Amino acid sequence: MESSSYWTAFLVFAGANLALLLFASSITAFIAPAAGGSGIPEVKAYLNGVDAPNIFSLRTLAVKVIGNIAAVSSSLHVGKAGPMVHTGACIAAIFGQGGSRKYGLTWRWLRYFKNDRDRRDLVTIGAGAGVTAAFRAPVGGVLFALESLSSWWRSALIWRSFFTTAVAAVVLRLFIDLCGTGRCGLFGQGGLIMYDVRSTAFVDGDLIMTYHLKDIPTVVLIGVIGALLGALYNFLMANVLRLYTAVNERGAGHKLLLAAAVSLLTSCCLFGLPWFAPCRPCPTAGMKNAGLASTTSSNGTCHSLNRFRRFHCPAGNYNDLASLFLNINDDAIRNLYSTGTNDVYHPGSMLAFFLASYFLGVLSYGVVAPSGLFVPIILTGATYGRLVAMLLGDHSGLDHGLVAILGSASFLGGTLRMTVSVCVIILELTNNLLLLPLVMLVLLISKTLADSFNSSIYDLILKLKGLPHLDGHAEPYMRQLTVGDVVAGPLRSFGGVEKVAHVVHVLRTTGHHAFPVVDEPPFAQSPVLYGLVLRAHLLVLLKKKEFFMATPVRCAKESIAGRFEAQDFDKRGSGKQDAVEDVEISAEEMEMYVDLHPFTNTSPYTVVETMSLAKALVLFREVGLRHLLVVPKACDRSPVVGILTRHDFMPEHILGLHPVLLGGRWKRLRWQKGAVTKYFRSLIVWIASSG
Amino acid sequence: MESSSYWTAFLVFAGANLALLLFASSITAFIAPAAGGSGIPEVKAYLNGVDAPNIFSLRTLAVKVIGNIAAVSSSLHVGKAGPMVHTGACIAAIFGQGGSRKYGLTWRWLRYFKNDRDRRDLVTIGAGAGVTAAFRAPVGGVLFALESLSSWWRSALIWRSFFTTAVAAVVLRLFIDLCGTGRCGLFGQGGLIMYDVRSTAFVDGDLIMTYHLKDIPTVVLIGVIGALLGALYNFLMANVLRLYTAVNERGAGHKLLLAAAVSLLTSCCLFGLPWFAPCRPCPTAGMKNAGLASTTSSNGTCHSLNRFRRFHCPAGNYNDLASLFLNINDDAIRNLYSTGTNDVYHPGSMLAFFLASYFLGVLSYGVVAPSGLFVPIILTGATYGRLVAMLLGDHSGLDHGLVAILGSASFLGGTLRMTVSVCVIILELTNNLLLLPLVMLVLLISKTLADSFNSSIYDLILKLKGLPHLDGHAEPYMRQLTVGDVVAGPLRSFGGVEKVAHVVHVLRTTGHHAFPVVDEPPFAQSPVLYGLVLRAHLLVLLKKKEFFMATPVRCAKESIAGRFEAQDFDKRGSGKQDAVEDVEISAEEMEMYVDLHPFTNTSPYTVVETMSLAKALVLFREVGLRHLLVVPKACDRSPVVGILTRHDFMPEHILGLHPVLLGGRWKRLRWQKGAVTKYFRSLIVWIASSG
């Protein structure tokens, strides 16, 4: 740039961006497609009980880390926080499945974690550690994992997450200590607090970061704008992602083409738009509200790699739009948050940057590469916060940096709908406790208002990907249905002592993961439900064939005990599930019998078929079940009527069976709207009756 | 004191203390006994589903506020945080029960909260607001309510608590603004951050609040000491409370005598012990490590109402033990936390203050008056923190104020076993983010170590009071039992159409709150379970007598619908439960029949009698039930075998029925100890096998 060969500069810039992004896209598309996107929706679904394949494999981990580094370096408008969450969850999941035998990274003590609940807890903790690493916010990490990701809470999980994030914070601090003396190059430059906005900075004798009662309307305005912009962002993002999915489905070539197109668009915006901003002289210390303008050196230049950019301006001048576009995201946010810098940026540039940031954010996330949402949203929010402060001018007494922080918070509340975790993360990012009440207020206004339009981004992406995430609250129409109304047949069950051929046939022809075991005469007087047996355990049985018997009798417990260990029935790691195709049974063995009694769960959870569907959902979700047996009310039929799984509770299934519920009062309402109306109506009634 | 008439001073001091404490004790003992103590165990039990009487009435609220003010003013070594939590919960509960009709404070829109779950949520939120008000810590308030009090979590509850604490923080800030100019006297003196320990204070050019890797051993030592002292504190407290309960049971006179004795002991300690401390000259600005010693005025005196006390010393000198004892708790804590004041206090005084604070804390809590635990524990912890720092001397490079903060955190972790909430509360109290990793580390060490000795104070008090708090995890012996093993008879059930006399008889002779409704012929072909009916609803039925019928037939739904509204069946406020003694039935009405079908819950949760007790407990606790119906496995018996309530899951009941479980492997282990041993054993096995 300094030699004024601008086209060369542009080609170098755009070329490097394109190369990096194509690298990230290709490794994602060809090696580990599960590593694309931010990963947070997949982790959220996993913690709800949905076992999506391959999201936690070693390949995904490697591609996620390398791909994200490449994608962020390519100036794409994406962040790193989401991929770090997925990375942390990956590492935890790999521990939970006992390491990776394929690569020789396994330890015996890890086998204690080979069950559903411990693996889920480990993933929650790992995700929290990821947030801690991204924002250097230990308490924020715990709260994020518990508020946005986890479906079930308990006290023990909280202090375990806490321990993990504390260790992560201490290790971070250690690295900062080690690298603090400049030995690590650019690596150690940041402090423990990323955007340190000290609340005791003074300018002209006035405390900058102060606020008063008359500032509340400004805060409310920021919250409302954040809600509207956030809801619109979610809406646009959902539609863009739908479009991108249609494009990406056509093949890897289309994925790379899309990535290339977005990269070129980004490069053009980043390089092209600053040409429209006028050059201005560097801010001097004498200028009012130029804040930390002592960065202007003695010969009048203020250029640095992280604040003011010269771009095409003559020496001693700076281009404010280039200073926003061409700095890395973290530095741009720091600059926007800096206090006492009210006159450094100009409204026109801020507006241009805001629009570019907003729409580039919507367009960039769906590219097939590991990408995050957080930091672009924080940046966009800070931008419109400053813009609003500039437009309000003297009507608001708040410092522009402060309003930028509030803008970030409100935009985060409007898009991601997080409250406590964002508050604590912002507190830990800016080290400013006095701001806390304002940040809380702005978050709540934006979240409440935005919730009346649509769901958070992660929920929209979950629906787009078709992951069957089960919410905790029952929809209104569920109260009108009983369990018997949604149970779909036919029911496949096994006898207590079953022929091997029948077992293999059922396993091959259906995809169910659990089967009821019914004891028929002569093992019981009348058909009675004995329990529930899992497909995984049946496959273990079929692989060890020593127990097959020629005649259908119940075997003694002792004869079984010596042949199996508890580890044989451990939950397998992801990607290592047993498949029925791997089981080889000879024709002679097919005619033999296997006793299922010792391997059956004799205490399955059951509901009567007349139970309200809403109550059954509460039971299913709160206890965390995968299968729920339905028993008949009267005793004269088969002892088990059906099995419910999470798919039976999904709206698509229920409304598909009973389309009459779609119309009228039983339509799936956004419950907040109904509740708000109800409260307003009763409030009006009260006013009328007491007046 | 200045006129050296020391006995008069002592008499005035002790007399005022005695009068205030006797006032607090008498209003508690005579007006509202439920207001004694801190109230947090009662709130915790309520949030677990235990409906203890009178803990949330208006009388309790008034006595709690006034009594706590009096108790704290009487120099008793108690705090105000616990009572504030109870106060907040009271206010919320009063809203939840629809205001108080007795005092005319009721609004119609409150009727939407008249159900179990909303009332419980309101109480959780109110408790969080109480913590916020006590510590000016909004995020800490949310986390405290969710970590220590609440038994069930959901995302909606978190952001609702968050909203409440945000509003509380904004109102606080408003008051501070208003009172900041001194218009409110002493009321507005504090800032939003109570113990502002800024991390950028410098002395002699060195940053005070810094720490390095070599400080980790000191931190670990603080944590271990905190755990040991905390576990001992809990043990002593439990035994002292047991003794006090035995004394208090003898009558109100004994309660007042005990209160008087403790008050006199406290006055003697507070007034008498400073006599043993030597007088020292006021710290001057020239003294090293005297910190904010610019409080020493020009004529050499440093006395003030909140820092240095002169006591009996000549002018220009101060008595450091008096400075600790005779300041209010908040000021004492602030002084102990102040940085750069390493030489202001002396080890002997610190030790004396620590011992007095420790044992007075144990002895004072059980007095019949509203008292809190938090602030005394923080103070005691700060004291031994400083003591350890003094004893370590130059081996530790940490500032003594910093170690005092860590001491408080470790003692809180050792006694109350809270982690995330304490961390955030301390962060909000001291506004020092850089300390966060150290505080987290110290909390976790102390909590983990102390958990291997005994439970937290609140759990010990819960057991002492006999409140049936139900934990989430199943004890080991429960896996050996089925539901049928613990169901206690006889079972009282009603027919679908029942004679009024029978209903009244059963309600009068039993204390059960729910009864199964069984349809016999001719209403059904064979006896079948129809549902579950609640005592409260039966009493509503009995009070409205229009529906009684002369012959046992099922009435049509329409004839019922017009006579009842939903509000008739609302959950009553505490203390306003309907009682069967209030129901007046004439002999003629006794012979009539009532149709229970429209008022029965037709979807009760049921378990089969062969279900494992551990699984039934999980269902009971996770779904949040009060009654769980037990149905038989075979169909040829009565359609319902029994009902389980929380008392059936209590260890006393189960082990009382099956004393054989007490011995051997099924003894109720402290699970952590077993898990730790198990992990160590497997670790040793791994080391041995891999070595």
From TrEMBL, chains A, B:
Cellular compartment(s): Membrane
CDD domains per the UniProt record, alphabetical: CBS_pair_voltage-gated_CLC_euk_bac (cd04591)
Q: Please name the InterPro entries in this protein's record.
A: CBS_dom, CBS_dom_sf, Cl-channel/antiporter, Cl-channel_core, Cl_channel_pln, ClC
Query: What are the alphabetically sorted keywords of the record?
Result: CBS domain, Chloride, Chloride channel, Ion channel, Ion transport, Membrane, Repeat, Transmembrane, Transmembrane helix, Transport, Voltage-gated channel
Q: Which GO terms describe its molecular function?
A: voltage-gated chloride channel activity
Q: Which Pfam families match?
A: CBS, Voltage_CLC
The UniProt entry lists membrane topology as: Multi-pass membrane protein
Main location, first listed in the record: membrane
GO CC: one term?
A: chloride channel complex
Query: Which residues belong to the signal peptide in this entry?
Result: none
Give all residue intervals belonging to the CBS domain.
Answer: 600-660
Organism's domain of life? Eukaryota
Family label: Belongs to the chloride channel (TC 2.A.49) family.
What name does this protein carry? Chloride channel protein
Species per Swiss-Prot/TrEMBL record = Brachypodium distachyon
